[in-house]
Write a structure and sequence with these properties.
The protein is an alpha+beta fold and 128 residues long. The chain has one domain: Hotdog Thioesterase (Thiol Ester Dehydrase, Chain A, Roll), CATH 3.10.129. Helix content is 24%, strand content 40%. It is built from three helices and five strands; from the N terminus they run βαααββββ. A hairpin with a 5-residue loop joins strand 4 and strand 5. The protein is elongated. The two termini are 22 Å apart.
């Protein structure tokens, strides 16, 4: 699967919060974060599901329907960090494919700093 690389900017995080009605202050409120001993906003974990779906549909096209998406967070991701969603097919048949994915935080040279989401799996079926 081709990589999907996204920079988790604060404006994109606020836009996502607005679209999902998730206004928890750890995602945008610097005064709240400082009072809790944190120096940067935390990326809403559910956005990683959206990124995985985007990567899969960019790769497999609009005939791909994600019927199951399962993932677990392993590390926090902070505003300003860049993530890379990557995956590979682990099973394929005439009905669809199963994909194993993970999301890594990377630096400017694309070196992996840590894995943020793993294991992550998707079941994709073909629709007419």
């Amino acid at each position: 699967m081709p990589f999907l690389v996204k920079n988790c900017t604060l404006p994109s995080m606020i836009a996502y919060a607005g679209s999902t009605w998730d206004w928890h202050r750890v995602h945008y409120d610097m005064e709240f974060l400082k009072a809790k001993g944190m120096d940067r906003p935390i990326v809403d974990g559910q956005i990683f599901g959206a990124y995985a779906v985007q990567a899969i549909q960019d790769w497999l096209g609009d005939k791909a329907f994600i019927s199951l998406l399962d993932f677990r967070f392993t590390q926090l991701v902070y505003a300003g960090e860049t993530i890379r969603c990557e995956g590979e097919i682990i099973q394929s048949d005439l009905v669809g494919v199963s994909i194993s994915l993970k999301i890594n935080v990377i630096d400017a040279d694309a070196n992996i700093l840590r894995t943020a989401v793993e294991p992550m799996s998707a079941t994709v079926i073909w629709k007419d």
